[in-house]
Amino acid sequence: MRILGIDPGLAIIGYGIIDFVGNSFKVIDYGQINTPAKMPIADRIQSIYRDLNRILETYKPEDIAFEELFYNKNAKTVINVAQARGVEVLACRNFTNSIYEYTPLQIKKSLVGYGRATKEQIQYMVRVLLHLEEVPKPDDVADALAVALTHASSINFKESFRMI
C-alpha cells in the first residue's frame, strides 16, 4: 500500500511517501512544499494546491494521512495555516476518499510508545524504521514521514484512526 503522509502548513508543508507491504516500509520520496512569506495568501494557497496535485499525480497514493492541526496562541497564524490545510485536504479529497488524520499524541505513541516523546525521539524512530542515513530536514518532512508510518501501523486497527 502506498501512503502519503502530510505535515500541513502554509510556509512549509512536509510530505513523505512510503510503501507498506507486509510489515516492511520502503521510502519512495519525501520533501517539502514551500511558499514565501511575502507572497499574497491567495497565491500561496494556489501554489500549494498546484504542487500537491503534482505529487498526488506522480505517486498515486492509496491512503493519505495528515497530522491534525496544532493550535498555537497566534490567531492570525492559525487562521492562515487552517486555510492552507483546507486546500491541502481538498486536493487530497479530489484524488481519493481515503484520507485520515492523527493527533501528535497518536503519532508519538505509535512510533515511540510514549505520548510525551520528544521531537528527537520521533525523528530517531523515523530514521531507524525507514533505514535512512540521517533524519530528513526540515522537521516538517520528518513529521510527514512519521504520519505515514503511524497510518501504516494503524491499518489493522481501524478504530485507532479517524477519516477526515
Short characterization:
This protein has about 160 residues and is of the alpha/beta class.
Please characterize this protein's 3D structure.
The protein has 164 residues and is an alpha/beta fold. It has one domain: 2-Layer Sandwich (Nucleotidyltransferase, domain 5). It has helices at 41-59, 75-95, 104-112, 119-129, 139-154; strands spanning 2-7, 12-21, 24-34, 63-67, 99-102, 162-163. Strands 3-2-1-4-5-6 form a six-stranded mixed β-sheet. Helix 1 runs parallel beside helix 2 (75-95). The longest helix is centred in the middle third of the chain and has 21 residues, at 75-95. The model has no long low-confidence stretch (mean pLDDT 93).
Layout of SSEs?
Blueprint: E1 2-7, E2 12-21, E3 24-34, H1 41-59, E4 63-67, H2 75-95, E5 99-102, H3 104-112, H4 119-129, H5 139-154, E6 162-163
Helix pairs in contact: 1-2, 3-4, 3-5, 4-5
